[in-house]
Amino acid sequence: MAAHERRLRRRAVLAAGVLAGTALLGTTAGRAEALPGTDGAAATARPHAALPAPTGPYAVGTATRHLVDAARRDPWKPESGDREVMVGLFYPADGGGRGRTAPHMDAASAGHFGAAGGAAEANYRVRAGAADWAATRTHARVDVPVARGARSLPVVLYSAGLGDPRTWNTGLAEELASRGYVVVTVDHTYDSSEVSFPGGRLVESVLPALAEDPRTGPSEIDAALRRSLAARVGDTRFVLDALGGDAGWRRAMPRGLADAMDLRRVGMAGHSMGGLTAAQTMLEDRRVRAGVNMDGQMAFPLPDASGSALSGAAREGVDRPFLLMGSEGPGAAENRASWTSFRRHSRGWNAELTMAGSRHAAYTDAASLLPALSRRGALSGDDLRETLGTVRPERAVATTRAYVVAFFDRFLKGRDGGLLDGRSARFPEVRMSGGA
Q1: What distance lies between CA 411 and its chain's CA centroid?
Q2: Contact status, residue 121 vs residue 128, Cβ threshold 8 Å
Q3: What is the distance between the alpha carbons of residues 226 and 3, in angstroms, rounded to a whole number?
Q4: Helix, strand, coil: what percent of the chain each, to 5?
Q5: For residue range 110-166, what is the model confidence (pLDDT) as tens digits?
Q6: Helical axes 366-375 vs 381-388, angle rounded to 10°
């Protein structure tokens, strides 16, 4: 889970003796850029990182869109009006060089992400101002047409960890898009570290202030985590509604994309709180046919009125395919009770895998970006190991991509390469149970 969630849960531990959560992370280096406001010749160089290229047969397109849910007041700040979210779309695109390549984060978001107290520092141990987050590019071109002849493309929704932006698994989104999926990443406003809206508005997360407020006790922590989950599920279901029914938004999509999506084949993946969001959304919305939880705890700090701290998804399970992908980090054991309950109550295909030597952030862009930044001094080697673990970063990236793609290929496309059947010589770092 994100460090904001870890701090909230840790405070609940200290105050009420309930279980804490795990840690988060990350980034990378490359070409040097001058610090803002300095003379270029004398400037201190700031590193940035490169995301690994997607490996599928398609070029990748991307679009960013603003959506307003007129049927729902904002759950964090009702006085602000209707709920607004930003989404990113990644999709198979026409080849060729048309269109500009998208940044990993827009400039305003990157500046906030990397500033003192921002998510790069708080979640990933990257020193404030030590990296040029705005310089990292994706491999996706903006608003280009969908791939010629693309039809009936499955849709995968993605939800990031608590306090992380929707961009913090762009490498995985691009990989899926390059293999014939439309991926929709959702920013959960006031939860995501920052959300950049049209017109230059930058909305910051409310979570850091809550985590640091000395008046915050166990009940406030528990309420915030439950509010986050409810808001995230509401956001996801609203985005699904918009994908299928908002004629204006569909017309504003890149050419051919609206008609190419197959909303009968929808999956969802998420990291940390986003993984719980995937499971809870599946419990509440049958449009989501398959889900992946990457190292997300499925319980809350305090019991509810029923006496259980388990989420609804963990208590009831789901009746469609679900994959749990775990780490070996310090908080990994805290997933086990909720994961065991989830699997015991699930009626669909389900499996659990563990990536040896990994920590919580190994399932995010941290695995791609942090190592090079560490080599350039933006975070220490010890901090790098605390965030990623001892797994080789390139193996973490390859493992995450391979298993997520194999899962959705099997359950959304009906293509089974056998990777989910058990131990694989290609991925000796993975231990797997279930799935038979």
Answers
A1: 20
A2: yes
A3: 17
A4: 40, 20, 40
A5: 999 999 999 999 999 999 999 999 999 999 999 999 999 888 999 999 999 999 999
A6: 170
CA dihedral of residues 424, 328, 351, 262 (deg, nearest 10): -90
CB atoms within 10 A of CB 251: 8
Where do runs of H (alpha helix) occur along 47-141?
107-113, 119-124
Query: What SS3 state is found at 345?
Result: helix
* Structural tokens at position 412: 């959304």
CATH of domain 3-434: 3.40.50.1820
Tokens of 71: 């049927």
Helix (H) or strand (E) holding 244: helix 218-245
Residues 6+ apart with CB under 8 A from 340: none
Q: If pLDDT is split at 50, 70 and 90, which confidence band does 334 have?
A: confident
Residue type, 331: G
Distance between CA 426 and CA 277 in Å, rounded? 30
Dig out the tokens for 158 from the structure.
């993605």
Beta strand residue intervals within 25-129, DSSP E: 33-34, 45-46, 59-73, 82-93, 101-103
* pLDDT tens for each residue of 55-89: 999 999 999 999 999 999 999 999 999 999 999 99
pLDDT for res 41:
33
Q: What residue segments make up the domains of the chain, in order of their start?
A: 3-434
The model carries a pTM of 0.90
Residue 335 is encoded by which pair of tokens? 């997933």
Q: In terms of Cα–Cα distance, which of 329, 434, 288 is closest to 313?
A: 288
Residue by residue, what is the 3-state secondary structure of 178-222? HCCCEEEEEECCCCCCEEECHHHCEEECCHHHHHHCCCCCHHHHH
Query: How far is Cα 436 from Cα 430, in angstroms, rounded to an integer?
Result: 16
- Backbone dihedral angles phi then psi of residue 216, each to the nearest 5 degrees: -75, 120
